[in-house]
Amino acid sequence: MTYSRRLVDNQLDTLLPLLPAIAVEGAKGVGKTETATGRATQTYALDDPTTFAMVEATPELVLRESPTTFIDEWQRVPSTWDLVRRAVDRGAPPGRFLLAGSASPAPQARPHSGAGRIVRLMMRPMSLPERGVAVPTVSLATLLEGGAPDVGGRTTVTLDTYTAEILSSGFPGIRFALPNARPFLLDSYLDRLVDHDIPEAGHQVRRPGALTQWLTAMGAATATTASYASLLTAATPGDDPKPSKVTAMAYRDLLASIWVLEPLPAWSPHLGGLKYLGQSPKHHLVDPALAARLVGATAQSLVRGDGPRRGGEDVFLGALFESLAVQTLRCLAQTAGAKVSHLRTQGGDHEVDIIVQRPDLKILAFEVKLGSTVRPSDVTQLTWLRDQLPDLVVDTVLLNTGPEAYRRRDGVAVVPLALLGV
Fold first, then answer.
1. pLDDT, mean over the chain
2. CB of 260 within 8 A of CB of 286?
3. Are residues 111 and 135 in the same domain?
4. For residue 42, what are the β-bridge partners?
């Protein structure tokens, strides 16, 4: 499989000559090892039994002189993190260390945070522009500058293509496999999470089946703010009494520790201007293909409208399309130094699917709609937010599955998701 350049490569190219230590983190299979190996002159792969035994016995081996040392799956020998941190304190030169981790160490083995010494970069499954589905014509960075820039471009990407992309996964090893093999690879990935990856990170799993049920409930709740009580009910339909909230939170924390869960936090304006905003995150798995596989979704069932309902007339495909948009925007926003969240008032009267916040706290607001045409009601929430916070909202964008990017008379930019890029 030929290496496909990733957005995080641009960040590494910029930061490696400037910083002594960078940690690339993210779920198993996102491509961290391939990305870092190409920049290393010495690699310690701690998922290799021989290398693991050697480094576990003598962690100081990772400090052997080398222009760029790469420690893969560092969390398997947590002391390597502190060794790197101390080497930075002693004046390690730029580009000296790369680390990659696919899990947070168990609390009893957790090292110093490394703040100020080791810069962390998150790597996620491939965003839509990284997959090469279409040539982007609308730049997120330009939209973030404000000023209602012109948007344009056409695409032949249709709903069928978006559906196929959701099911194909953004994990390179799955996406580039033969189509008939992908469902089996997704099943294997999910099984390994519970049977291998979480225990390997030092976390105990007393009831693997219950953890899988919890993960399935999270997948079914994709792009919602469903309460943990309702998720617990969905995950344990035959259990009476139900597991405690503490147990439910432990399941959530285990899955978050390996970056399989990546909830979208609620946005809160630092300068005021809006009251009674909800604080619940929106539920997302790291890749919508995992959510689709957990609930048994296929291309045919999604197009028919089968699957868990989000409420009202919404169908599960809409939730997965929104999750694909969130995944893509998280990758794009990271390159711009921006943060991604969502907005929802406590009563649910107003909701904006995605908020991208610049370092200066000004925001770009996105609605995500599964459709190729735009109705007036599709932009109501965007114009409401712009009217409420005119000095804070730099632009408003409707992401959809249409063929063309353009700007409406009311100022809202309409952008097919396939045309959004860096």
1. 92
2. yes
3. no
4. 69
Q: By the 8 A CB rule, do 404 and 416 touch?
A: yes
CA gap 351, 267 in Å, rounded: 11
Token pair, residue 313, equals 């007339």
Residue 364: pLDDT band by 50, 70, 90 thresholds? very high
pLDDT of residue 251: 80
220 shares its domain with 265: yes
Q: Which residue has the tokens 């396939």?
A: 418
If you average pLDDT over residues 368-390, what whole number do you get? Answer: 96
Domain range for residue 317?
A: 128-421
Please write the tens of the pLDDT for every residue from 188-237.
Answer: 999 999 888 888 777 777 778 888 888 999 999 999 999 888 887 888 87
* Among the listed residues 100, 130, 131, 125, the one whose alpha carbon sits nearest the alpha carbon of residue 30: 125
> Could you identify the residue written with the tokens 């969502």?
342
Does residue 212 lie in a domain region? Answer: yes
Look at residue 57 and tell me if it is in a domain: yes
Name the 3-class secondary structure at 340: strand
Number of domains in the chain: 2
- Going by C-alpha positions, the residue among 319, 250, 268 that lies closest to residue 291 is 319
Last residue of a domain, which of 89, 122, 155? 122
Both 97 and 154 in one domain: the answer is: no
